[in-house]
Amino acid sequence: MASKIVEAHNKRAIVTGGTRGIGRAIVKELASRSCCGVLFSDVAFVYNSCDECAEELIKEIDFPGTKIYGFKADASSMDQAQATVDEAIQKLGGVDILINNAGITRDNLLLRMTEKDFDDVINANLKSVFNYTKAILKPMIAQRYGRIVNIASVVGLIGNAGQSNYSASKAGVIGFTKSMARELASRNITVNAIAPGFIQTDMTNKLTEDQIKKLVQNVPMSRLGKPEDVAKVVAFLCSNDADYITGQVIAVDGGMTM
Ligand code: NAP
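The joint structure predicted for all components is written out below.
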């Protein structure tokens, strides 16, 4: 009798910027719930500076059957990205999912924005996406399977005064996403972007109550988003239910940009 061979291993994911905010919620979501037709994902996350955040996260994800690894590396460096991906693949036994989430802001009106603020944001938010995508590409192409999700922003769609560096980086992520989707579709690798609206994380904690009130007035759902609101869409895009979705930008913004 013919028997069906079922893929036995967990899915294996690399998440940049995994220690705080949206990235942390993504790591937890992928590691804890049924994803991609198997029960859990093993996850390697990358962070830049906060060792305590990484240690806490590893302690929190104490799910039987799930492996979790933290890597301290600057996502804007190609050399560090390649070394991290090589080691992560060795530990995970391969890679099926890449989530490009690492990002920073250095807000200012253009008149006051320094060249360093512009370069730092482009490097952390856009070059990092190039670095990690390039570093995982050969193994994903060889196995004819991959799911890549890039975390962009609504600001990359509609712009924002005081964020010319950030919105340029996120618009770049969207263009990169669509080009990669076209390059990789025939290899069964999907590439999508999520454009979160304003989500409650350290990034938005800098805003005053007054600024938040004003922002929320433009959100039909009248609230900021939660990191989990984004993480659940990431998990969906990595699941078998999203096999025929590529090159899309999904806004998770409470209706703000419709
Ligand atoms: P966050 O709370 O500030 O966390 C950022 C994460 O990225 C941290 O884990 C940080 O690690 C890591 N990181 C930053 N620069 C890095 C680098 N060069 N190399 C490696 N890791 C780096 O940010 P968030 O609000 O969760 O944002 C996550 C993503 O969503 C970003 O791409 C952001 O642009 C996007 N986004 C956020 C919002 C929002 O409202 N929060 C809205 C739209 C889009 P360390 O702590 O170790 O530095």
